[in-house]
Amino acid sequence: MGYLLSKLLPLLVLPLGLSLICLVLALLFRWRWPLMAAIGLLWVFGTGVVSQALWRGVEGAQIRRSAASAPRADAIVVLSGGRHAAPGDARIIEWHDPDRFLAGVDLFMVGRAPRLLFTGGQSPFHPGLPPEGRLYLNEAECLGIPASAMASTGPVVNTAEEAVAIRGLLPRPQNRVLLVTSAYHMQRARRLFERQGFEVLAFPVDFKTRGSWSGGIWRDPMQWFPSAANLQDSSVALRECLGRLVYRAW
User: Fold this and answer.
1) CATH number of the 67-205 domain
2) pTM score above 0.70
3) pLDDT tens digits for range 178-190
4) Which residues in 97-118 are b (16+ Cβ under 10 Å) and which e?
5) How far apart are CA 171 and CA 74, in angstroms?
6) Is the pLDDT of residue 111 over 90?
């Protein structure tokens, strides 16, 4: 029930949820202002300009680095990033984004740490999918990383559980970890791992903010018009802000 509420309650205060509440109020009471508010919310948070500003806010001044430039640590810790079951009898599992896994493998290959640890992310809503760490272990072994140098936690459902589970795999005094996760998620993850006594060396990947070298977003006229993709991006960034508030991870 707690996991379900953690997924449902934020929807009420994210742009789409607030817009739906405004529309219901407009229908029930024949008020005009909730209708205008709903349109405004969807338009503003559906633009690329706003979604990119939110991404920049949650990702901060972090930059993408090469694996060779990373400091040395006792272990590389790769947090789960999501996967789903592809249709068909072959029962193929596809990843949402392989950046975390690939970065962890790269860090190990260039000798940044002697151990590569994964977390076993698993949603209770999808019991048929194995813990994500199990998939990572299999793929990493196929890429030539010895099984003796790797481990994964058991099933975990959130970042707080990941931090506790990794502490169980890496007993003190092995505290120095290269933490690999999405840039927007790094600050919250870092705080939660530090509370478990780790010295966290952040290695952010999966950046959502566009690099300025590709050209300013302001010049693209389509970024001033709303789209479902931009609304989703804004919602994920705002949800991360809520997560930091709940876990006091500012």
Assistant:
1) 3.40.50.620
2) yes
3) 999 999 999 999 9
4) ebbbbbbbbbbbeeebbebbbb
5) 11
6) yes
